Amino acid sequence: MLNAVIIEDEGLAIDKLKSILTELVPDIFFTAIITSVKEGISYFAGMPKQDIIFCDIHLTDGLSFEIFNNFQVDTPLIFTTAYDEFIMKAFDYNSIDYLLKPVNVQEVSKAVQKYKLLQQHFNQNAQKLNNLLNYLGTPKKTRIIVKKGMEHIAVKLEEIVLFYTENKVVYLIDRQKTKYIYDKNLSLSENELDPNIFFRANRKYIVNINYIKSFRSYEKVKLMLEFSTPDISHQVIISQETAPDFKKWLTGT
């Protein structure tokens, strides 16, 4: 559902815009129709949630910019106005488009499509950004506690060649080729590691960039890693889908 606010003081313009939007976005819901600056200030004082705002500029009691001068409104704005003199000023207020009246289906459709593309882009990157912020806000580990037999040992992260899972148990191998048990699942392990140093190669492996000697083609579309530590017998395969991200990670791009 798309929650929309219309700021407009002309009844016919409101009806036309609602009709066009309902045709283009059948699941649209109009959370508010605002007809004046005063009404807009009162409405946004309640910090409402909406996805998009369609906004005329000249209202009966002033310019709609006055509304947004009173509040920080982060919602994308599409201005609909009969005047082109405010086009530069409009982009000071989260504007993603500026439509001159009378608006038509084609122009509104392009503006809505622009909104959807921007939304898709930011949604795709939101989780990556959130993961990065969580990582930056978390104290960095330099060692982890692992098990070898009955002993619990602190191993430096910089000495770990790879993590892997086998029969639902997570193991790690250090540069001396010593194998330890790590008492967490692979996803939790991944979240604790520096993403610049460690990479989730596939469901089974996390690898350390400092011990990757090279990689080569495998089954034409996949990659096989070779480690600088001798006699690492694990065959770590990067899928075709993961290969582009792996290459970017490896080169720091």
What does this structure look like?
The chain is of the alpha/beta class and 253 residues long. It has 2 domains: 2-136, Response regulator (Rossmann fold), CATH 3.40.50; 143-251, LytTr DNA-binding domain (OB fold (Dihydrolipoamide Acetyltransferase, E2P), Beta Barrel), CATH 2.40.50. 31% of the residues lie in helices and 33% in strands. The chain has 7 helices and 17 strands. It has helices at residues 11-24, 37-44, 65-70, 87-90, 105-136, 186-191, 243-251, and strands at residues 2-7, 28-34, 52-55, 58-59, 62-63, 77-81, 95-100, 143-148, 151-156, 160-166, 169-174, 179-182, 198-200, 205-208, 212-218, 222-227, 237-238. It has a 5-stranded parallel β-sheet. It has a 5-stranded antiparallel β-sheet with strand order 12-11-10-14-13, with no helix packed on it.
Short description:
The protein is of the alpha/beta class and 253 residues long.
Task: Detail the topology: elements first, then pairings.
Blueprint: E1 2-7, H1 11-24, E2 28-34, H2 37-44, E3 52-55, E4 58-59, E5 62-63, H3 65-70, E6 77-81, H4 87-90, E7 95-100, H5 105-136, E8 143-148, E9 151-156, E10 160-166, E11 169-174, E12 179-182, H6 186-191, E13 198-200, E14 205-208, E15 212-218, E16 222-227, E17 237-238, H7 243-251
Parallel strand pairs: 1-2, 1-3, 3-6, 6-7
Antiparallel strand pairs: 4-5, 8-9, 10-11, 10-14, 11-12, 13-14, 15-16, 16-17
Modified residues (4-aspartylphosphate): 56
Keywords: Phosphoprotein
Domain Response regulatory: 3-116
